[in-house]
Amino acid sequence: MAVVDTLSTHSPDEEYLGERQQPSIWTGDAEMVEAFYGFAAEIRQIEKEIDRRNSDGRLKNRCGAGVLPYELLAPSSEPGVTCRGVPNSVSI
């Protein structure tokens, strides 16, 4: 269990899908940086859609007693073990 917990823990400085601190560092191509920002905007929209669907009471498979909201592939996460987030890389 300790290994699973350690491998499942997100660090506070984790970068997730569509996030980079400074995209211009990994490429000097302005067109690539612009495409990355467009991709990041689409990822934020996906996360908003997941949150919207999770809060929609009409979707019985997402809400109710004992039913957890869908968060497995939500793009971002808080630090710790959250069952959320798609990191940019995985180290095992």
Automatic annotation (TrEMBL):
Residues 1-92 form the Lipoxygenase domain. It comes from the Eukaryota. Keywords: Dioxygenase, Metal-binding, Oxidoreductase. PROSITE patterns: LIPOXYGENASE_3. Gene3D superfamilies: Lipoxygenase-1, Domain 5. One of its GO terms (molecular function) is metal ion binding. Residues 1-22 are annotated as: Disordered. GO terms for biological process: lipid oxidation. Pfam families: Lipoxygenase. The keyword Oxidoreductase applies. Residues 1-10 have a biased composition (Polar residues). PANTHER family: LIPOXYGENASE. This is Lipoxygenase 3, chloroplastic-like. It comes from Momordica charantia. The lineage of its organism: Eukaryota, Viridiplantae, Streptophyta, Embryophyta, Tracheophyta.
